[in-house]
Every structure is written in C-alpha cells, then in structure tokens.
Amino acid sequence: LGDPEAGLMPGLQQFFAALQGVANDPSSLPARQVLLSEAEALAGRFHYLEQGLDDLERNVNDLVANAVTEVNEYAKAIADVNHKIVLAGGQGAGQAPSDLLDQRDELVRKLSELLSVSTYQQDDGSLNVFVGNGQSLVLGGQAQTLSRIGNEFDATRYEIGYRVGTSTVNVTNQLVGGKLGGVLAFRAEVLDSAHNALGRIALAVSAQVNAQHALGQDLSGNLGGDFFAALDSASPQAVASALNTGTGAIGVAVSNPGVLKPSDYALAYVGGNYTVTRLSDNATVYSGAAFPATLASEGLTLSLGGAPAAGDRFLIRPTRAAAADFAVAVTDPRSVAAAAPIRTAATVGNAGTGQVGAGVVNALDPNLQQTVTITFNNPPTTFNVVGTGTGNPVNVPYTAGGDISYNGWTVQIGGAPAAGDSFTVEANVNGVGDNRNALGLGALQSQLNLDGGTATYTDAYGALIADVATRTRTAEINNNVQSSLLAQSVAARDSVSGVNLDEEAANMLRFQQAYQAAAQMIGVADSLFQTLIVSLRG
Amino acid sequence: MRISTSLLHQQGVNAILDNQSALAKTQLQLSSGRRILTPADDPTGSSQAIGLKQLLAEAEQYGKNGDVARSRLETEEIALAQVGDLLQRVRELAVRGLNGTLGASERTAIALEVRQRLEELVAAANSQDANGEYLFGGAYKGAIPAFVDNGGGSFVYNGDQDVRQLQISRTRQVAVGDHGADVFLNIPASGGGVQSAFVTLDTLATSLEANSPTQASLTDVDNALSNVLTVRAKLGARLNAIESQQQAYQSLALTVETQLSGVQDLDYAEAVSRLNRETLALQAAQQTYTHVQGLSLFDFLR
Predict the structure, then answer these.
(1) Is A128 within 8 Å of A83 (Cβ atoms)?
(2) Residue to substitute from A458, A478, A493, interface B, most B β-carbons within 10 A
(3) Which residue among A1, A430, A499 sits closest to B4, beta carbon to beta carbon?
(4) Cα(A179)–Cα(A67) distance, rounded to whole angstroms?
(5) Model's pTM, two decimal places?
(6) For residue range B220-237, what is the model confidence (pLDDT) as tens digits?
C-alpha cells in the first residue's frame, strides 16, 4: 500500500501531471492521449490495490474455514481423551493415566493457538473447554461443533456460528485471541477500513473530476460529459440483512463526496424508529420516526422501497466497491474538455479602460452559451444586459471588479468603462487553444476536497497509510510484549516440569553410585556368607 | 532455578534467529538505501514522506509549466520584435514621405514599400506556434488565418480575446500570450477612437499614392509602435515573474528534498555500524550456542 513505486501516490501524481500537460498545450492530441493513458493507469492502480485487499479478504475466509475445521477436530479429540481418562480413572484404582493427561494438555495447548479458551477440571478427571463468552466447546465426553456461516449482509464473508439446540448463533465477535481471533480482528479493524478509505478516494476523485469536466468544452465544441465512470449513485451499496422479515429495500447515493467518510453505516428499524449508526466510530448520525432521505453531514442520500419490518437491519456501504468500480469513461482524446464553454470579449473600439475577465462557469445552465451583451449607460455607473436567459435587466449598478452572473457563468469587469462601451459573453466557438477548464481540473490536486475541506487526495491517502502503519506497529509492539511474556511463562513452566539433562545426569550418577554402594553391600554380604559357610563346613 | 535443556536449546536458537532477522532488516535497508522499509517502521515518517513527495512533485510540475510558459512568451517576443522592427521601418518611410521636396513618383515608390511592409505585418500577426495555433489569435484555431486582408483597407480578425493562462504556482497563473485585439486592433487613432495597425499602414500607403501624406498618419504609426512596445514591456514583466517563481521553486525543491531525505533515507554511517554490531551479536550468539551445547555432564561420563 505504501510502496513508493506501487502505491496510489505515483498514479495520482502522474494523472495530475498529465492534466497540467494538457493545460500547457490544450490543442495537442498527444498531450490528451497521455492524459487518457495516465487516467487508465490510475484506474489500474486503484484496481491493483483493491485486488490486494480482496486477496487478503479471501485469505481471511480460508483461514476462518480452516480454523473452524481444526477447532472442531481438537474439540472432538479432547472429548475422546476425556472419555478415556474417565474410564481409566474408574479402572486404574487411583492411578492417574499420565499419558492421556499429557495428550490432553497438548491438545488444549494446540486449541489455544487457534483461539482463546478457558478450561475447568471436573471431579471425574475430565476437562471442560469453553470459548468466547462461555460457550461450551467440550463438556466431558461431548464435543460441540463450531460452523462456518456467511455474514448476514454478505454471504461470501465467512463468520463463525455456534449451534444452540436447533438454531445457530453468530459468535464471531465473541471469539478473541489465537490465530482465529487475530484474523477476525485484522478483518474488522484493518481490512474493512482500508477498503473504505481507498474507495472514498476513488469516489471523490471520480466525482470531483467529473463535476469539473462537465463544465468544460472538448475539442469538437461539445460540453464535457463524465471523465471517469460516474460512481456516486452506481457504486454505493445498501444490503438488507438475510435475517430481515420485511420487504424494505434501501438505495444509497453519494450527494457530496467532499464530506464523505470512509465508513460503513448500519441502519436499523426498531420500534418505529430508524437509526443510522456510523460503524467506524459507532456514532449515531440519525434517529427518528421518518426515513432519513438525506444524511447531509455524511454526504449521502437514501431511498426506501417496500416496507421494513420491526427489527430489520441494513448495511450501507458507500465507498466499499468504489475502488473496484473506478474506470475511465472518456475514450477519445478529443473528448477531454480542456476549454471553457464560454468566452468573453471587450468590443473593439471601447473608449474606456474597462476590462473583462475570462469568466468562470458555475453550472450547466441551458442558456450557458447564449450570447450576452453588457452595454454601459451614460453615465457609465450602470449597464444594461441583453441576451436569452438573462431577462434583459436594465440599469444594473456597476461595481469595478464585482461579480456579474447570468446563465450559469460569472464574469468580472474591472477598470472604468466609458458610456457606450460594451462587452460580450458568448459560446467559445473554435476555442481549441483554451485551457481554462484543464486548469480547473489541475487545481483539484491541491484543493482541500475531502473531509469537509480539510484534506487533499494525497492527505487522505497519507492518513490511510498512517492508520494501517500505526495498527501494524501497535501489533508489532504487542507481539513483542506477548512474546516475552510467553518466554517467561515457558521458562517458569519448564523450571517446574522441564528436564535438565545435566541434572538428570547428576541424578543418574547419584543413583548409579547408590546402586554401586548397594551392590557393594551385597558383595560384602555375599563374601561374608561365603566365609561363614566355608568356615562351617570346615 | 532449574533451566531445562530444551529451554536452553530454544533460547540459544531464538537468540540466533532474533539477531538474524535484525541483520536481515539492516541488510535490506543498506541495499535499498531506505530507512523506512514498510510504513509500520515509522508511521508518522511515512505519511510525512507522502506529503513531502507531493510537494516535490508539485514544485517539479510548476517548474515545468514555467518552462512551457517561458518558451511560449519567448516565441511571442520574437514575433513582437519583428513587428516592432517593421513598424520602425514604416515610421522612417512615413517621415520620408512627409518630406516636402519629394515628388509623386518617389512617394509612389515609398507607398510600394509600405504595402510590402503591410503584407509582412499581416504575416507576422498570423505567426503560428509548433501546434499551428496563432500566436495572436487567442484560443482560435482554424483553416482561415486569424487576420485576413480583404483588400480595400478592410481587415478581419477571426480570433477571440482568450489569453491562455498557465499555472506556475499553486496560486499563481501567468498569461502566456496576448490576443490580437490588444496587439493590433485596439490602438488609439489620431482622429479619436481606435484604429488597427493594418488600417494605419493601409491609410498611409493610400495617402502616399495620392501624393498627399498627412501628419496624422505618422502619429498613427507612432501609436501602433508604442502599443507594440507596451505589449513587449508587459511580456518582459511576465518573463521576470516566471523566472523569480521558478527560482523560488528550485530553492523550495532543494529544501523539501533535504527534508524528505532526512525522513526516508538511510544514514549509511549509522546503518553500517549497526550492521557491524549486529554481525558481532550474531557471531556471539552462534558461538555461545555451540559452546554451551558442548557442555554436558555426559561428556565426562565416558
């Protein structure tokens, strides 16, 4: 993710550098082709990173599936050994079956490599094993099984079920520790947030580049459409829980990528109230009886079809799929909208010093490209405006440098125009050398476009890297601490139950000598006897 | 405390493995030259490095934009210099034509050269850059030239009043051209209003051909000349602005590179001495392991 060559950074940088190339030379087809290639490369970068996260997700799935199988096998083996130990305890007249106990200890140790367990020894010698919040895995000679189940919102996301009677309970969030707890925590804390953070950048880049691109004009004189595939309504997902009983279906769209947060949301319909919770920090962002059609603070709009039943839940994922869906819509280099669709001109022969700025397009008004003439009155403190869509206002007061806005554009006239001077705003016909919209697109790179105007795309990516890096670092530190704790425990255990060969050798020598001494005694006794017997014979 | 033999083995092996992984990391750092191998090595440093790299890439890009802007302005400067020389020559011709001792045939001869110069002026006004864009045509590009002489003193401007701006810093854009209306059309006329440079030359030639040159036509030529000089002066100011901006970015790039190097690059002296230390530690671990493993009471029992 953070690799200087393979991360997202170089892709973003080269895309914006190519935009500057187009701004420097707007009529050059090669420069436009480079822009399209770099845009494709950026899309490829998003897909590559997303692919990496998807692969990790699949790995987690595999690990969960394998771990569940292993846990079940160990549980069964422990139950078997328990059974044998109870039997042996009955037959062996008080003698502990140490081999079986050792075997069970080893099985429990292996099981606890997979997940945290607690044990309780019963009077008959059997050992009960509990997982999570006290769910029994082994009770005497009986083993319960865990099962692999799909997430209620996403069947391809494996979670862990525990069978109670005839129903299966999801115990995923209660399982901690061990390899299984580790991968589950990794998925919940790192993988999901990385997915969302990457998706948010993809969504914001595509939506904001598109918004600016639409305000431009391409080489053929057409208004610019979407530059990237539009993701704001296509990519966000809202999934109903598999457990829902109502017919409610939720639609979601991004209305403002500038305030979008890299998080999923949970929507619950309980007791006639809708509650929306932001999952990254568990903050409640809405609660009320009316369906939340707009979540302005989160930059989302929601829609409801059908009727949810009480207790129904939905998962809203605005940014999850955006990095995978990121694609370039423009295929023809001529269709890159580098120019602005309007141009301004001061009439040749104007007597005053009035000057008109290049103007800015704010919105796609249907009359955007209508010719509008601004003529100054005598005295030139007011002007009249003539043109379709303006309403032809007369005697508009003039302020030097003030905004004059009609038909979706804004221009400024500065200086001191004389009476009778006129200025025009019109369609940018043949304006192939114009680069104003390309400059607008290029400016997106350094604009604070995210997090409500506090972060650039680069900042957002830096935050993602820092977040993952800090979690990794924390994990490394925890790992070191836990390893030294483990080493101390092992040393302590071994000092009680371990074998030191030197000690055993010394013991052996001691026993050997004792044996020799004993044997000597027998030898002496033997010779005494011999002597006695011989003397008696004689 | 009793140390079990297997623990003793394990500790020895662990010590060797720990030293080996530290050594491997240092080796990777040395061979890549990077202090931060994964972001987890230094979370703050790696996100800081991303910001600095962005800044550096921007400085580079704005430097490049400055080069493009300068080359465009220099091309324009050459065309304007040509126009200036040409108008200077026309001015000399106008002064000579006003000389009272000249006869009709001499004035016709002068008029002939003025017409030549007019053609040259139209050609200069239609100067194109490498992409076939008209230097003085605004954003216009088309088969018909920006300036067309329709004959009979009628000239048409097909260009627009767009002036291309290039981004030479985050906040600063610089105009990299002047449109034809400013350079050739909006020139104050001696009789009030404005008159294009082409019409001025055409009027001058016509008056010379009629053997009745006026002082006013000389004034108009002077106005056209001073207008070109004004445009050139503005252009020079823009070139200076680009220059100073580029210098500012060069020194910024140097500072940022130094910072970036401090954040992500390896201190070789430190890394090499660390490598030596770690090698020594590994050797010690290996030697103590073999030494300690050699110690067994059983050896003395044989």
Answers:
(1) no
(2) A458
(3) A499
(4) 8
(5) 0.82
(6) 999 999 999 999 999 999
